[in-house]
Specification:
Blueprint (H helix, E strand, L loop, with lengths): L15 H9 L8 H9 L2 E5 L4 E3 L8 E7 L2 E4 L5 E4 L3 E3 L1 H6 L6 E4 L3 E7 H10 L1 H22 L21 E2 L5 H11 L3 E5 L5 E6 H10 L17 E2 L5 H11 L3 E6 L2 E7 H9 L3 H9 L3 H8 L2 H10 L4 H29 L9 E5 L1 H4 L11 E5 L14 H21 L16 E3 H13 L3 H10 L3 E5 L1 H17 L2 H11 L23 E2 L1 H18 L7 H10 L5 H27 L7 E2 L6 H25 L2
Parallel strand pairs: 9-10, 12-13, 16-17
Antiparallel strand pairs: 1-8, 2-7, 3-6, 3-8, 4-5, 4-7, 10-11, 13-14, 15-16, 15-18, 19-20
Helix pairs in contact: 4-5, 5-22, 5-23, 10-13, 11-13, 12-13, 12-22, 13-15, 16-18, 17-19, 19-20, 19-23, 20-21, 20-22, 20-23, 21-22, 22-23
Length: 638
């Protein structure tokens, strides 16, 4: 790396030793040498004497990023609380992300040197050096999390339980004389994912998992007769009194699946993500049973009227809003499936009989992605089998068959509307002929759009290509998805039109990173969280997933799959997921409050109604959305 990466007006330079020290700092973890060299080359060294001020609270920002690489800086807030920053530290990041006046005063506590890098240079370098963009994405994610954890209240329900109530106990363990082969055989026999390794005194040496066993043998080349201690990795411990909410936060923050429950120095149990899930799902069983026993639309309608209660319980039982939305979506799907059961029974009672062919009613949009909140409308379609039962050759529907499916879809859409799922304003419902087709007709439509992509096709695909089974034959949905993946793998140009449709919606952040408020009558003066935030994330995840042949539809699952496949970096995915959680949390909380207050839930948030931390999280989340959309447009844009 160049020894003249940054120079001062007096000709001072940063030597190689200082550069290596800067590279080793947490602020630049993951940043490759070339990117760091380029960043420092744009900088200018500034020396500060003790007591000299770098910037004052409330001053307009100077469009400079500061890297503290020698000395100490004191940061003083409005209440005169002082915190210290020592090398290597980044200052003025809030101004870089949000163009806000300085929120602190920065003062040298001793002789200090900083490197000043103009914001415009940093933005330019982000485009050319992905590792720099990733480092800044990681910082954005950390900022959102820090604010989010502070403004959320204490959890209730399952997540307020203590670790002792759900942990697996006794702890399954082996001594170091156990071999890797014996450890694997034990884990396979008992169907467990981890094994504690204790020494002769009972002290915990570490955890062995299926992954660490495989790494020991296949990556490090150890014999299967080696000690299981060779595969024991560090563990994260909690106490028996730790609330599940805190345990879940630790798992997410440290990226671990297993937590060891320690009573003093003694390991007494284990908590896995499966333990968490079982604790949460246990509270959903009663509602599922009530829905399955409903014998009339009136009974179903009474249960549907409890949507805000279900939403509040799902939210309070989950620290992650995406999990709450997933459970709430399952509640809606269970209601709709039972409604379809009742509609089929009505048709039989009226003499129309059973379905003449196999079919699959599909749900589309946010409900298919398991991201619906309190009041989703209808977005559905139907696939009808090409071949009738008992026949081997596909053929068109006979008039009687077509009449049955017309009556069925009309009845389903009508009953869903009566249940509270309003007609789709865009007409995306199985009752409409364009959304009631045989499998071969759906396949042909997808092929035509891939062959002759257009703006209209891009918009249609951004709605349709989240399809999931609602009711019927799952095999038909699987066949259609296989065709979609195959066509887009062969003819990917259609993805550019999906990106073009996405580009018509811009994140709610504009010049100087100010939040952009809606100007339409419905949400005037407020921020459209769904259209200007969540939908952009969903669109980008969909486009990337389709390009990679990823079958997932849930946005979080899509992003995690893209990270596993190495298509998106860990830092980018982490920033987008954190923004997605924050925006979804804000919207879900807002809708619960509206519904309980007798208002129709909407998608608009008034920034002036938020406290400072929440408003900062909203702005930072929109910045993360903007960065993600820029990445999508850079790769797929027309």
């Amino acid at each position: 790396m160049s020894a003249s990466a940054a120079s001062g007006p007096g000709g001072g330079t940063i030597g190689r030793a200082e550069i290596r020290r800067i590279a080793a700092g947490d602020a630049f973890s993951g940043l490759d040498d070339e990117a760091l060299e380029a960043l420092l080359a744009r900088g200018r060294i500034r020396s500060l004497q003790p007591g000299e001020t770098l910037f004052h609270l409330g001053d307009p920002d100077r469009d400079l990023l500061y890297i503290v690489y020698e000395g100490r800086i004191e940061l003083i807030d409005a209440q005169s609380v002082i915190t210290s920053q020592e090398p290597v530290a980044l200052l003025a990041l809030s101004s870089y992300f949000d163009d806000e006046p300085y929120s602190l005063t920065a003062r040298a506590a001793r002789p200090t040197q900083v490197i000043e890098v103009p914001f415009d240079d940093v933005r330019e370098l982000e485009q050319g050096y992905p590792s720099l963009a990733d480092a800044l994405s990681r910082i954005i994610a950390d900022r959102i999390r820090a604010n989010s954890w502070q403004h959320r209240g204490s959890p209730t329900g399952a997540l307020s339980l203590q670790a002792r109530s759900v942990m697996t106990t006794p702890l399954t363990y082996r001594r170091p004389d156990c071999t890797l082969a014996e450890a694997f055989a034990l884990m396979d026999e008992r169907r467990i994912g981890s094994l504690a390794v204790l020494d002769e005194t009972g002290a915990l040496l570490g955890l062995a998992t299926i992954r660490t066993l495989a790494r020991a043998v296949f990556t490090h080349g150890l014999s299967t007769e080696a000690s299981v201690a060779e595969a024991a990795e560090r563990f994260t411990a909690i106490t028996p009194e730790t609330p599940l909410s805190e345990a879940q936060d630790i798992q997410a923050r440290e990226g671990v699946r297993y937590l060891v429950v320690m009573d003093g120095e003694r390991p007494v149990g284990m908590i896995s993500q499966t333990n968490m899930l079982h604790a949460i799902l246990a509270q959903q069983t009663v509602m599922r049973e009530r829905i399955s026993r409903a014998a009339s639309l009136d009974e179903l309608r009474a249960i549907a009227g409890e949507a805000s209660y279900v939403a509040r319980e799902a939210w309070s039982n989950n620290r992650e809003a995406s999990r709450a939305a997933y459970l709430l979506s399952e509640y809606h799907l269970q209601l709709q499936r039972r409604c379809i059961d009742l509609a089929l029974a009505e048709l039989r009672d009226e003499g129309l009989g059973d379905p003449p062919r196999g079919y699959a009613l599909m749900v589309l949009g946010s409900l298919a992605r398991r991201e619906s909140l309190i009041n989703p409308d209808q977005d559905n379609a139907i696939i009808i089998a090409d071949t009738p039962p008992g026949e081997t050759e596909p053929r068109a529907l006979e008039p009687a068959e077509a009449a049955w499916f017309e009556a069925f879809t009309e009845r389903v859409n009508t009953r869903l509307d009566e249940l509270g799922y309003a007609w789709c304003k865009g007409g995306i419902m199985a009752r409409n002929l364009g959304y009631r087709r045989r499998l071969s007709e759906w396949r042909e439509q997808i092929t035509t759009m891939a062959l002759y992509p257009s703006q209209t096709a891009g918009r249609w695909c951004n709605i349709f290509l989240d399809l999931e089974l609602l009711y019927g034959d799952e095999g038909l949905v699987a066949d259609l998805w296989a065709h979609v993946i195959d066509e887009l793998g062969t003819r990917p140009r259609l993805l550019r039109f999906l990106a073009g449709d996405d580009a018509e919606g811009q994140p709610a952040v504009g010049l100087f990173n100010r939040l952009i408020r809606s100007s339409d009558d419905a949400g005037k003066g407020r921020v459209d969280i769904k259209r200007k935030g969540l939908r952009i994330i969903a669109n980008g995840a969909r486009i990337y997933a389709l390009s990679a042949g990823v079958r997932e539809t849930h946005t979080v699952s899509r992003l995690k799959a893209l990270r596993r496949e190495g298509i998106l970096t860990t830092e980018m995915v982490d920033a987008v997921l954190t923004a997605h959680e924050e925006l979804l949390d804000l919207l879900l909380t807002h809708q619960i409050e509206q519904h309980q207050g007798g208002e129709a839930p909407d998608k608009y948030i008034d920034p002036t109604s938020l406290d400072d931390l929440t408003r900062q999280s909203l702005a930072t989340s929109m910045r993360a959305v903007k960065r993600f959309q820029d990445r999508v447009q850079g790769v797929f844009g027309l």
